[in-house]
Write a structure and sequence with these properties.
By secondary structure, the protein is α/β, with parallel strands linked by helices. It has ten helices and 15 strands. The strands form three sheets. Strands 3, 4, 5, 6, 7, 14 and 15 form a seven-stranded mixed beta sheet that branches. The chain has a six-stranded parallel beta sheet with strand order 10-9-8-11-12-13, sandwiched between helices. α2 crosses α3. The longest helix is centred in the middle third of the chain and has 24 residues. It starts with a strand and ends with a strand.
């Protein structure tokens, strides 16, 4: 393979001032790996927005091609796990942070980071799910494993308009749960109800300092916000309930007490999507293919081209994105 391809490259100078450029790369420029993939689709997660805007130090290798998710076709492989022509999917493993990622025509990766493309999903649908939706499914799986089921009571989802929140609502609703959506955008209530939310609450009910224990309002929660919001979700979880925490949009602190844990037996599960085992990844993606309404996924997905990535990365940090943004790299 010869020639060049477009890529987004994040760099910084000696004074640590960051710059973002669209550049031409060749195959020789790519980082080491045993599988080379032609990127067909990717997406924009909050972490990708942080990498491009520099709002938080997620990039740990300079320069960096961002993009933590991709679907593509193997063009060469030195691994016995994949062959030329295989369709593969990637989430996480530091790609877009320590290893060049998806915002380029090609990516060279470790076979250990890849899974076969899930059956029943197109590349654009898989990236409509992306790390955000895959994380949402990991949250649901953790709650189920603990024994949470629709008969136990409602499930609250914070950051409801975000990627994790919107997909979590759609999955939980299809599984039969009564979903309470917490959002800072009350004008999006109809949208959230179309996804499957039964109730809408304003995020201000959860985002300020609260009591160590509150009224028992839900059996479980999916929280992508952290800080006071997570503390209040825990404080209002019913006896024997559980909360899956996967984000820090409000902050990485947890100003809570032990009261929900020792008086109500509430469980808190930390959900890491970046380094999850291949077995857990494959299970989650199989569940996504069956337990996510693809019509609802399409309703929350916007498809753009490569040239719009940088602008949309700023939008996601500014809270202007509803649902998911997919990049068609073949357009």
């Amino acid at each position: 393979m010869s020639g060049t391809f477009k890529a987004i490259l994040v760099s910084r100078d000696e004074e640590k001032k960051q710059s973002v450029d669209v550049v031409d790369l060749s195959m020789d420029d790519l980082m080491e790996g045993d599988v080379t993939v032609k990127v067909e689709a990717t997406t924009i997660n909050y972490k990708d927005g942080l990498a491009i805007t520099g709002k938080s130090p997620v990039v740990r290798h300079w320069p960096m091609v961002p993009g933590i998710d991709l679907v593509g076709t193997v063009v060469s492989s030195d691994s016995g796990s994949f062959s030329k022509g295989d369709k593969v999917l990637l989430n996480g493993f530091g790609v877009g942070e320590t290893h060049w990622g998806a915002y380029a025509g090609y990516a060279r990766l470790s076979a250990n980071w890849l899974i076969p493309m899930p059956k029943g999903l197109t590349p654009l649908q898989a990236m409509g799910v992306g790390t955000a939706g895959y994380t949402a499914m990991l949250c649901v799986m953790a709650l189920e494993k603990y024994g949470i089921e629709p008969s136990k009571g409602p499930v609250v989802v914070t950051g409801a308009n975000g990627g994790v929140g919107s997909v979590a609502i759609a999955i939980l609703a299809k599984l039969g749960y009564h979903v309470i959506a917490s959002t800072g955008r009350p004008g999006e209530a109809d949208f959230l109800k179309e996804l499957g939310a039964s109730e809408i609450i304003d995020r201000s009910e959860l985002s300020e300092p609260g009591r160590p224990l509150g009224k028992e309002r839900w059996a479980a929660g999916v929280d992508g916000v952290g800080s006071h919001t997570l503390a209040n979700v825990l404080a209002q979880t019913s006896y024997g309930g559980a909360v899956a925490a996967c984000g820090l949009a409000q902050g990485f602190d947890l100003p809570a007490t032990v009261m929900p844990f020792i008086l109500r037996g509430v469980a808190l599960f930390g959900i890491d999507s970046v380094m999850a085992s291949k077995e857990k990844r494959i299970e989650a993606w199989k569940r996504i293919a069956t337990d996510l309404d693809m019509d609802k996924l399409d309703a929350i997905t916007e498809t753009i081209g490569f040239d719009q990535i940088i602008g949309k990365a700023h939008d996601i940090i500014d809270g202007k994105i509803r649902g998911r943004v997919v990049i068609d790299m073949t357009a």
